[in-house]
Amino acid sequence: MCVSACYHIHLTYTVTRPFYNKQTAIKEEEKVAFTKAETVRKAKERAEKAKQITVEDLTIAVVKYRELGLDFVKGEGTDLQFAFTKIDPNDHDRVFSFFLQITDDELYQVKECCPQLEDKVVMGFVDELNRCDDYPSFMRGMRKAFKDSIVESTHEERGPKFV
């Protein structure tokens, strides 16, 4: 009877072992798949959260820029018009603008600057933008150039000083 019982246990173990191994393998695959799905879910959640923050931040930034006298207008193709106001102390609504364009070579260039600024000044800012991608510095530089153009035109209108 011992031989029969031992044989029965051995037979049961031999027959069920492959099923047990498959079941264990399936459980392991299930754990791996669950872990991957959880990782993807968390990454998607973080991306959605970052996207929401970015949109909110951009909306706030655009409103603040407009309050400070800067507006953006989409032009043709890759053109984006930047329009400054609140520069001229005698006419806060006067518009100073330019178009920033991305060339086929993935470089920035300024066109249609109004009022016209010295090419040397504008090219200096554009070269720096192409080199460093420092938009805030570029915008401050262009605004200052427009502001300086008011000072220069005021001096030209007054004429030379005689002492």
Structure report:
- 64% of the residues lie in helices and 15% in strands.
- It is of the alpha+beta class.
- The protein has three helices and four strands; from the N terminus they run αββββαα.
- It is elongated and about 95 Å long.
- It has a four-stranded antiparallel beta sheet with strand order 1-2-3-4.
- Strand 1 and strand 2 form a beta hairpin.
- It folds into two domains: 35-67; 70-156, Copper Amine Oxidase, Chain A, domain 1, CATH 3.30.457.50.
Protein traits:
163 residues, alpha+beta, Copper Amine Oxidase, Chain A, domain 1, 4 strands, 4-stranded antiparallel β-sheet, single chain, 64% helix, 3 helices, 2 domains
Task: Please write out the topology.
Elements: H1 2-67, E1 70-74, E2 80-84, E3 96-102, E4 108-114, H2 119-132, H3 135-158
Antiparallel strand pairs: 1-2, 2-3, 3-4
> Largest beta sheet, briefly?
4 strands, antiparallel
The CATH C-level class name of the largest domain: Alpha Beta
Helix content: 55-70%
Q: If helices are DSSP runs of H or I spanning 4 or more residues, what is the number of helices?
A: 3
Secondary-structure content class: alpha+beta
Give the SSE order as H and E letters.
HEEEEHH
Q: In one word, what is the shape?
A: elongated
For this structure, what is the CATH homologous superfamily of the largest domain? Chromosome segregation protein Spc25
Strand line-up of the largest beta sheet: 1-2-3-4
Kindly report the average pLDDT value: 80
| Radius of gyration computed on alpha carbons | 34 Å
Low-confidence stretches: none
Indicate the CATH architecture of the largest domain. Answer: 2-Layer Sandwich
How far do the termini sit from each other? 132 Å
- Number of E-type strands: 4
CATH fold descriptor of the largest domain: Copper Amine Oxidase, Chain A, domain 1
Strand content: 5-15%
The total number of structural domains is: 2
